[in-house]
């Protein structure tokens, strides 16, 4: 077992944040390692300062008048009326709340369950097996660490993450963790098919050709990001994931039964409750940019929980840090004299570089790319 010695908030010794961060990182055991080491108090590096906490917003976290819509995709390929209804509901959701859930989406329930179990197997194996993948080099095809912005964020989030670039240039099967290798490959193919369908529906809902967003390479890349949020003994002191917006075109999220995902709407936190068999879908910054603010990439977060571990799998449709010189800007068919471009063109990589430099600081990188 990895030995980790981090300070809690008990004031027993002088706190050295930089040293604590390095000790945590050097352990290569993540938050799961803290739990395994029997640490029952939250180390200082995870405690959110009172002045930056969002407790004032939590009173609206379970709004009675607003909920994330659940959209049924069953039969939309055969029934034009069902297809039109699904498109309209998606459009309304993404112009306002930025999130919706889909059921009857084509990804088998058995595949979804095995994907969650594969993530669990990865994190609950011996530390030595996981450390092979631990790195801060996010250009590697398989990356495991805790907090990509560990050294730049004001406070660390209480979660561990591993991810893999599954398109357009996936790793060889031998490069993937053995405990979840087969399901990562299978699940990625299933979600890629769903993503293409969703982008067709979103294109049509914007009045564009069904293949317009795919033609722009919005489905060219896929990053599968697997999060593990251990049960937290003091959830009120920390966060599973800070307020942020996604840095991709589209996100398809598989979450387990524990919950904790919240979306910010009109300064109120709205729960995105787990729905059996459903996948959560939300717009990323890059889709807001190319739709010239028609679709909203909204702030969301994950609250810490005492019931964990919570497992989620976020599939980002983006080429991320993989090399590409393709420029993305507002779609010309959506522009007019009354609706001029809001953003300048950028490559996905340049956008991600800016995002990584600033981390999950609660502000949208889109502001940097405005004209």
The share of residues in extended strands comes to 15-25%
The overall pLDDT average reads 91
User: Strand arrangement, largest sheet?
Assistant: 1-2-10-7-12-5-4-3
Compute the number of strand runs.
14
- Main beta sheet strand tally, sense and closure: 8 strands, mixed
Alpha-beta content class: alpha+beta
Oligomeric grouping of the chains:
single chain
CATH architecture tag: Sandwich
The proportion of residues forming helix, as a percent range, comes to 25-40%
Unreliable sequence segments: 9-13, 51-64
Radius of gyration: 20 Å
The CATH class designation is: Mainly Beta
CATH superfamily membership = B-lactam Antibiotic, Isopenicillin N Synthase, Chain
- Return the domain count: 1
End-to-end separation: 52 Å
| H/E element sequence | HHEHEHHEEHHEEEEEEHEEEEH
Shape: globular
Number of H/I helices: 9
Would you spell out the secondary-structure blueprint of this structure?
Elements lengths: L16 H11 L2 H7 L33 E3 L7 H17 L2 E5 L5 H15 L3 H5 L10 E4 L14 E8 L13 H25 L6 H4 L6 E8 L9 E6 L5 E6 L5 E5 L2 E4 L7 E5 L1 H6 L9 E4 L6 E8 L9 E2 L17 E2 H11 L13
Parallel strand pairs: 1-2
Antiparallel strand pairs: 2-10, 3-4, 4-5, 5-12, 6-11, 7-10, 7-12, 8-9, 8-11, 13-14
InterPro entries: DIOX_N (IPR026992), IPNS-like_FE2OG_OXY (IPR044861), IPNS-like_sf (IPR027443), Oxoglu/Fe-dep_dioxygenase_dom (IPR005123)
Protein name: 1-aminocyclopropane-1-carboxylate oxidase homolog 1-like
Keywords: Iron, Metal-binding, Oxidoreductase
């Amino acid at each position: 077992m990895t030995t980790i010695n981090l300070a809690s908030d008990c004031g027993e010794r002088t706190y050295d944040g930089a040293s604590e961060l390095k000790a945590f990182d050097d352990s290569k055991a993540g938050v799961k390692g803290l739990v395994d080491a029997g640490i029952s108090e939250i180390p200082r590096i995870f405690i959110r300062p009172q002045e930056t906490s969002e407790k004032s917003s939590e009173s609206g976290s379970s709004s009675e008048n607003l909920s994330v819509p659940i959209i049924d995709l069953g039969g939309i390929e055969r029934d034009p009326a069902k297809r039109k209804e699904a498109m309209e509901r998606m459009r309304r959701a993404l112009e306002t709340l930025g999130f919706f859930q889909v059921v009857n989406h084509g990804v088998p329930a058995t595949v979804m369950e095995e994907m969650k179990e594969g993530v669990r197997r990865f994190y609950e194996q011996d530390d030595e097996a996981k450390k092979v993948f631990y790195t801060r080099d996010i250009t590697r095809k398989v990356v495991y660490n805790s907090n990509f912005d560990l050294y730049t964020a004001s406070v660390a989030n209480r979660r561990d993450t591993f991810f893999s670039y599954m398109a357009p240039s996936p790793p060889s099967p031998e490069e993937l963790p053995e405990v979840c290798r087969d399901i990562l490959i299978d699940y990625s193919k299933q979600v890629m098919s769903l993503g293409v369908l969703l982008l067709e529906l979103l294109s049509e809902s914007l009045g564009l050709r069904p293949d317009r967003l795919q033609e722009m390479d919005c489905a060219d890349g896929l990053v599968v990001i697997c999060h593990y949020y251990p049960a937290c003994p003091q959830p009120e002191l920390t966060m599973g994931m800070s307020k942020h917006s996604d840095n991709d075109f589209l996100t398809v999220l598989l979450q387990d039964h524990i919950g904790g995902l919240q979306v910010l709407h009109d300064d109120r936190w709205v729960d995105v409750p787990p729905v059996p068999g459903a996948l959560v879908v939300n717009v990323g910054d890059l889709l807001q940019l190319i739709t010239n603010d028609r679709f909203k990439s909204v702030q969301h977060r994950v609250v810490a929980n005492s019931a964990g571990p919570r497992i989620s799998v976020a599939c980002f449709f983006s080429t991320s840090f993989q090399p590409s010189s393709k420029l993305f800007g507002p779609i010309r068919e959506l522009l007019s004299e009354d609706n001029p471009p809001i953003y300048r063109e950028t490559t996905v990589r340049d956008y991600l570089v800016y995002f990584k430099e600033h981390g999950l600081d609660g502000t949208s990188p889109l502001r940097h790319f405005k004209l």
